[in-house]
Amino acid sequence: MALVDLDRFDFLYANRVKGMKTAATRDLMATLSRPGIISLAGGFPDTKAFGEEAFKDLSDDVAQGFAQALQYGPTGGLETIKDVIVDVMEAEGVSTRQEDVFITTGGQQGLDLVAKTFLDEGDGIICEGPTYAGALNAFAAYRPRIMHVPMDRAGMIPAAARESLEKARKQGVHVKFIYTVPNFQNPAGVTLAKERRRELLELAREYDLVILEDNPYGMLRFEGESLPTLASLEQEDNGEVERVVYLGTFSKIFAPGVRLGWVHAQPGILHKINVGKQGADLCSSNLSQMMISSFFQNSDWRGYVNRLNDIYRERRNAMLDALAEFMPKDVHWTHPEGGLFVWATLPSYIDATAMLPQAIAKNVAYVPGEGFYAGDEGKNCMRLNFSFVESDKIRRGIELLAEVIRERMELRGSLERGSHSGSHASQASQAAEKSSSRKSG
Amino acid sequence: MALVDLDRFDFLYANRVKGMKTAATRDLMATLSRPGIISLAGGFPDTKAFGEEAFKDLSDDVAQGFAQALQYGPTGGLETIKDVIVDVMEAEGVSTRQEDVFITTGGQQGLDLVAKTFLDEGDGIICEGPTYAGALNAFAAYRPRIMHVPMDRAGMIPAAARESLEKARKQGVHVKFIYTVPNFQNPAGVTLAKERRRELLELAREYDLVILEDNPYGMLRFEGESLPTLASLEQEDNGEVERVVYLGTFSKIFAPGVRLGWVHAQPGILHKINVGKQGADLCSSNLSQMMISSFFQNSDWRGYVNRLNDIYRERRNAMLDALAEFMPKDVHWTHPEGGLFVWATLPSYIDATAMLPQAIAKNVAYVPGEGFYAGDEGKNCMRLNFSFVESDKIRRGIELLAEVIRERMELRGSLERGSHSGSHASQASQAAEKSSSRKSG
After folding, report:
1. What is the DSSP string of A261-321?
2. Chain A contact for B287, CB < 8 A?
3. Statement to judge: residues B102 and B224 lie in one domain
4. Is B138 found in the same domain as B201?
5. Same domain, yes or no, for A117 and A219?
6. Is B288 on the interface with A (CB under 8 A)?
7. Which residue has the higher pLDDT, B81 or B30?
8. Whose C-alpha in A83, A422, B198, B390 is 20 to 30 A from the C-alpha of B146?
């Protein structure tokens, strides 16, 4: 039996497949479930917090409508879950109606359907740098031009966004939307300041484009006051949502295993999304929709979210404390007020991707930063998740990680001393550092 | 508050959205759930047959692993469900391994991911005429050229497929795959003969392309002997599957509400599918996967499929009997040996789309034929589903439908007599028949 030649059908594949890379996080998943590994890599909520009894209650409730739960449903979702979403969005400050909401198979499908609706090859997207890797994957299928805009601790910098828009205009690139994760951004953990939200809306009007507001973490706030969504700010200005396409998900306020999210947008856009959804997967799971409806209608869902926030707050604190305690002084990190992630920046000569196997060998894992950029940036950065692992393990994980980083720093120190004194350091080690050494000033 | 102008953002939409039409079936769903309507339109299995107790047993089993059920899963699916699929494919005559199987969010997502992997704009697809409307929707997002090949009662005609391939070659169209639903085809209800399966494989080798074998209904056979899948025939010839990409689904042998299917293909292709899946929806629902695993591992799933077949066989018989009893003589239909659908062809001057509102007014619904073609064909055809409605209602539905058709035929008869005698018939009625009257010989 001949071995299959992996490249045998290259001439048959679409061009787009060549531009799509696999997500480092997802590829790592097998390794990360190895016992003993402290994984700060995933973006996993803590689903154990839900409890078996609560799960059983939901199942029993859904069982009463089992024939519907097992059947195909409407393309845009069941009415009951749309009612739930109207309530959730109300809690986020957006007043809305059933018909403005469209159910998707997780927030991820929302990204895919919006991209499918707007992007021709070569169209531009303005997004944060770094940005959510899954969004880059979804967008890549439509071969756009990604333009990263730098952030500071108040999120995407509007003046820099304007520069990018001007540049695109000069180059004849049609920018279709600005993509932002305004709250506790994935991966950077920063939150877009209120006045900047208004400035982005103003930019969208001026350049006549759409804003894709991706808000999975908005309710996971541990401190400080909630900021208005871009959708609600547009509603305040206009009386209605026109150019903000809002993505929500149940993955963080209920559970990702049900794969349910939603798009909130004006009818013209939802009509296109509807057509795309039919081709993508016909409809989302009735079973999942009915479980969620049952939970949100019969339980204290706000109480559940508060309970999650208590857990995550404690773990975030554990992570920030451990970072302060263990990290060498040239390592910097963000201080998220909510969400799931801290973003750490190492000295520019350290390649976090190249360092990962060494970290895993020490039983700690993270996501290297380069996956959060369409281009070549972020190599000396990493995303650290604090939602999934208990506090004592987080502390131990950060301790181990600090050791790995310190070893890398010392290796470089000794290499530099070595080359100054003319001795021959290991060529392999030199090669490993080579790609980043040009950057180090 | 200003009304939203639906065309306001037309300049922002992608070109592909213009080529995508909404599926008539899906758009009709709201109407079809109206009490009193006998809907022969959907492609719904009978999920009531599953039973509340069986559903509860599954839920209780899944509850024991609730934290995993609620969590993100691996991109390609859980190992337990892949084991189930290996068993199911064994029952379909394909011997396979976990690693050749990839989980999708329903069979529909399989279509989308395969299209995403292979299609650049303008590439060709050979498929049956008529073909599954959902496949046309999935493909349309990638803007291919659809080439329908006629069928007879033994399925797609290979000589006609060869002609299309030759024509494409001359026109410089790169045909990427042949798409076929070999068993009890949706919508035509016909089954591809065994020797034709071999001929299609031979064509695929000769023209160096892939065969997309979509087999949701293979196990729903009411009579006659099972035919080997194209995947198993290739395996027989080659020792392995190389150019057959096989799509399976749990929608018909378990339930569509869980939205789970699979792709079976060689590793090079699955690698591309994996990348596409990450962008599309990250992973399929663990909850759904665990329910299915529980059912297939702990229950007599073959017994359940047999039970479904008993139900569907009786309903198919009821439909065929009623068609024979009630339909005017110029109406023809197929005799499916399994599956969910009968395809009926009306006199060429009747437009089944134009006739639908009249049928719905009489409380019976079907899917007009034109949605099953990329072009302009099938207007005088309809798809009739027999799986969802009880036999006595099927009989009544066909009786009502026959009345509507007879009225149309009589209307035309009187219009013809009217125009011969110079009288003025209703202009509205004339206009309604106009588009098809050119075709009537």
Report:
1. EEEE--HHHHHHHHHHHHHHHSS--HHHHHHHHHHHHHS-HHHHHHHHHHHHHHHHHHHHH
2. yes
3. yes
4. yes
5. yes
6. yes
7. B81
8. B198
